[in-house]
Amino acid sequence: MKRWCIPLLVALAGCRGQASSDPPIHVFDDMDWQPKFQPEEGTSLFPDGRAMRPLVQGTVAQGSLDESEAFRTGKDGEAFVAMAPITVDDAVIRRGRDRFNIYCAPCHDQSGSGQGMVVKRGYPPPIDLASDRARGLPDGEIFNVITNGVRNMPSYRKQIPVRDRWAIVTWVRVLQRSQHARIDDVPEGQRGNIVKESGTP
Ligand code: HEC
């Protein structure tokens, strides 16, 4: 018998067609064996002994968001909501100022007049947020501008979570009010503290 027949016979002997309960020999194990946890598996890594971790607080399954449509979109049907659908308090307004100064002031500047640093360097100037046009926009439309952008203004949907967008809307209202303030807005005891800028009537 020629010598090359021997490996051939050995190879053929492996093809006997019998079932075996032994695991197959893994010559190349590729990624069949991975150091990972299976669902429901236990571990000593965490004090509760579970490899499956509880969901992070605030996790929402797709399609299970229970906030109202007005809250998520700023719209009630086709129309923009006139008022932000959140409870506005001091903390919300402060949060709004904080987020406005981060995300909006680069273009709109901190007063909202539209002379932010990005504009000074050549970006198309936005309208004054205290202008009659901006004051006339319903809260829902300002929310929508932040969410989707408008003409030359990019969308901030990805950077700013929904609740913060509403907080920013409340701060835009504060800026608008501050530029159109009347003496009645100042508590009586503090009216004497107001200093008129030179040149203003
Ligand atoms: C990159 C610069 C930039 C940033 C950042 C920016 N805006 Fe604007 N915004 C613009 C420009 C430019 C316009 C004018 C859009 C146009 O009419 O072409 C505008 C317009 C607006 C308007 C008026 C929309 C209208 O219908 O006339 C509002 C309200 C507004 N921005 C709010 C915001 C708020 C709130 C933020 C922060 C979340 C923000 N913007 C961030 C550039 C910016």
UniProtKB/TrEMBL annotation:
Molecular function as annotated in GO: electron transfer activity; heme binding; metal ion binding
SUPFAM superfamilies assigned: Cytochrome c (SSF46626)
Keywords associated with the record: Heme, Iron, Metal-binding
InterPro entries recorded: Cyt_c-like_dom, Cyt_c-like_dom_sf
UniProt-listed Pfam families: Cytochrome_CBB3
Domain Cytochrome c residue range list: 91-176
Protein name in UniProt: Cytochrome c domain-containing protein
Taxonomic lineage from the root: Bacteria, Pseudomonadati, Myxococcota, Polyangia, Polyangiales
